[in-house]
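Handout, section B. The chain below has 373 residues.
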Amino acid sequence: MGTHLILVTLLSLCSLSFSQECRKELLENVDLPGTNITVLYSPDVKHCQQLCTQHPSCLFFTFIRPDWTEDNRHFYCYLRSTISGQPDDQTLLLGVTSGFSLKTCKPHTRLCHSQVYKNVDFLGADYRSLFTADYEECQRACTHDPGCQFFTFVNEVFTPEVISFRYKCHLKFSWRVPRIPIIEKNFGVISGFSQKAEITQYFACQGKLLSETEIVGNDMEMLFAVSPEQCQALCSAHPLCTYFSYSSDNFKCYLKNNPSEMVTRSMEGVTSGMPERFCQLNSSWVKDTYERIDFRGSEMGYELMEDPDTCRKKCTENPNCQFYTYIPDLINPHCFRRRCTLKRVITMPAPPKVTKLPNVVSGFSLEDCFQIA
């Protein structure tokens, strides 16, 4: 059944292409109809365009601006595609701005989101709060905290009923490292990572791992990881992760949170450990290739390659590729052989929800702005 699903997924990729012209223009008050892949939130159209650029299959988008009056769908970012690769039409629609993915344009390693948004709340994803004198100090606190990707500051004239919230700075997290949507055992495929994988530039000391040991309870989030070392890297990247447990049978990585206690027990096939945030972790798992392991989902498209090494090189050379799966000559049916499927997920700061809220200011960490400068 698993192999059948993989092949069905691959069939849907036939229309994807790595060659599409670079179109940077934005179309104000124009809707670009197509198949909705997903709906995310963005504070402005440029952020929405970058979400489309980082999404593996988004070709164009429509952003609903704050001045939209038809209903309360403000800050919605519709990521879209079509089989043809082009919008079905261009429709006049007040209160929206549309545009195209920048995947094929000159790549930028980091994006600087320096604008702040007054009377806009980045709702959710809080991991820490503190009091600051103004939103500028809140943004500085976010910038200097490695876990912070964006923030919301409550100013001094916030709603009187909740005056205790005034001057409060909420630091918020979203994933900056690639996460593989699904990992499964699958005969006849080979998977691996780009050798420019984003996670390697953040995190090689040898982190302590507890083999045949499970840390009981306190699950915070479950992700897929190809090894205990990758699971530890994921835990180290999340500011709320205090320890983790990894199951080698199903590639599941359980991030856990309890700063007060840690209870362990013997468990075959499980490896546990703590995050390492003050040194570089062992990143040998990025350099390895994984036979009979499928990194499922997040396909950008595929090309035919002679061998898995060429596929890995192709992924590394493509600035948008984070990981890949290669199908060698051994697999049936014949039409799937030698397919090199390049893959990626969104790793830019992405608030889970954006809403209007008086007397608050939201914005992003400026860490990437300093790196660009």
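Note. The helical segments are 2-11, 45-54, 135-144, 228-237, 284-287, 308-317, 367-372. Compare this with the example in section A.
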